[in-house]
């Protein structure tokens, strides 16, 4: 089932997510709904706060990036078929050179900004079968994971841009809160009249 994506301004996007247990109500169905919602909005990642749940759960599928002309063949291979569920994730280490990439977010439609992140991460998480993993990722896979991980920490990508850039996008952010934007997917707006 495709769920509405929570728009910028909703307090759930600023909450630190709670850990969940393997008997979390309808977990398998929730994960499936998150993937459907993400694919419907042409996203490569979606975190539970973006559908209104303040829990430590996010999904990623970097396959769409594997067709990009802007990346090396080697990186494209790592992105192809990289589809994962992260439950109760904890980034243990962020290292390597900081690099900039133009990011967007389904909760903040029509806003894209260059964000600097470390090139490599070590993350501990449970998969959808509650099997524990500790893995290292780099490049775009690490970036997508860091972006979604920020969501379960109550952080948005626009928190990582300069004050000047924030000032320049302020009107767009206010418009999103008021529902004055029209992405081609369902959204739930925080300040929309008649809510």
From TrEMBL:
InterPro entries linked to this entry: Peptide_deformylase, Peptide_deformylase_sf
Gene3D superfamilies, per database record: Peptide deformylase
Cofactor(s) the protein needs: Fe(2+)
Domain of life: Bacteria
Entry EC number(s): 3.5.1.88
Catalytic function, reaction form: N-terminal N-formyl-L-methionyl-[peptide] + H2O = N-terminal L-methionyl-[peptide] + formate
Gene Ontology molecular-function annotations: metal ion binding; peptide deformylase activity
Active-site feature positions: 148
Residues given in the record as Fe cation binding sites: 105, 147, 151
CDD domains tied to this protein: Pep_deformylase
Gene Ontology terms describing biological process: translation
Keywords, alphabetical: Hydrolase, Iron, Metal-binding, Protein biosynthesis
Described purpose of this protein according to its UniProt entry: Removes the formyl group from the N-terminal Met of newly synthesized proteins. Requires at least a dipeptide for an efficient rate of reaction. N-terminal L-methionine is a prerequisite for activity but the enzyme has broad specificity at other positions.
Name of the protein described by the UniProt record: Peptide deformylase
């Amino acid at each position: 089932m495709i769920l509405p994506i929570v728009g910028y301004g909703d307090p759930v996007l600023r909450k630190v997510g709670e850990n969940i247990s393997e008997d979390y109500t309808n977990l398998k169905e929730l994960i499936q709904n998150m993937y459907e919602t993400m694919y419907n909005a042409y996203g490569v990642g979606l975190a539970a706060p973006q559908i209104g749940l303040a829990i430590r759960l996010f999904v990623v599928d970097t396959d769409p990036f594997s067709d990009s002309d802007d990346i090396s063949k080697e990186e494209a291979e790592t992105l192809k078929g990289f589809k994962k569920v992260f439950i109760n994730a904890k980034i243990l280490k962020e290292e390597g050179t900081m690099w900039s990439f133009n990011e967007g977010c389904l909760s903040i439609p029509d806003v894209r900004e260059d964000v600097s992140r470390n090139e490599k991460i070590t993350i501990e998480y449970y998969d959808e079968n509650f099997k524990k993993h500790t893995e290292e990722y780099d490049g775009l896979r690490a970036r997508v994971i860091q972006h979604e991980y920020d969501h379960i920490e109550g952080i948005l990508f626009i928190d990582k841009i300069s004050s000047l850039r924030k000032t320049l996008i302020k009107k767009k952010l206010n418009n999103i809160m008021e529902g004055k934007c029209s992405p081609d997917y369902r959204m739930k707006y925080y300040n929309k009249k008649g809510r």
